[in-house]
Structure formats: C-alpha cells, structure tokens
Amino acid sequence: METVEATVQSRVLVVEDYKPFLDFVCSTLRQCPNLQVIGEAKDGYDAVIQADALRPDLLLLDIGLPGLNGMEVAHRVRHHSPKLKIIFLTQESSEDIVREAFGLGAVAYVLKGNAARDLPVALETVLQGKKFASRGVDRDILSRPELA
Question: Could you tell me which CATH class the domain 10-147 is placed in?
C-alpha cells in the first residue's frame, strides 16, 4: 500500500492596486503547488478587511496603495494576526522604508522591478522560515538584531 503525502498549502492574500501586476503575481503564485491564493485586494482598507475575514498565512503587500498605505495595513493586520507572514512587493527601495517594513514584521522585501526573478525565490525562502530581500535592497538590514 502506497502512502500519499498531503501537501500543506499556505493560504495567500495578494494586495496590489495595479491590475496587470496583480495578475502577474497571482499567475506566479498559482505555479507554486504549496500556495493557494484565497483573496485579492486593491486598496488598503479592503486588505485589512480581507485579512481579518480570511486569515491568510501569507500576505503579499504593496506599499503604495489607495486608502491605507501598505505600512499601515501591515501594522493593523499584525496586531490581529501576529503569526501572519508579510512579504512586501513594492517599488520603494529607500533604506528607511525597508527598515520600517522589517520592523513591522515583514519576512521578505521584493522590489517590483526584480519580481520575475525574486518573487519565486522569496516565496521559497519564506516557506523555509528564512527572510529575504531583493537585490537593490540593503541586505545588511536582515541581520540587524533589532529586526530579528
């Protein structure tokens, strides 16, 4: 008798206001058998509502969103779901913003310009329990004790 191992799927909420990029992200996620897209949000307020209702394991979050920005979304959802893994997927690359993102509990920071290459790697890294930052982001931030 053969034993079939069940694949544990991480439930993902994607928050992105630019539809073509949202479609790209969801398409990328659907290629990962251990991920299931359970929702999409196009603004910060909807992201908070959906995160509360759907209780995802993983949140892919842009920073520049209508309504609430991604940092405020992260702050609010982190308060209600402290174990939620947050991956920022954004154009913002300043050290202050990256530091703030990891300070809010982000486990990965992916620059949109590198997303085709970095998003699959970031997802795999995060699912292995490690942190990730795109090229072009100060990766030394990952090793700072105040963000560990």
Answer: alpha beta
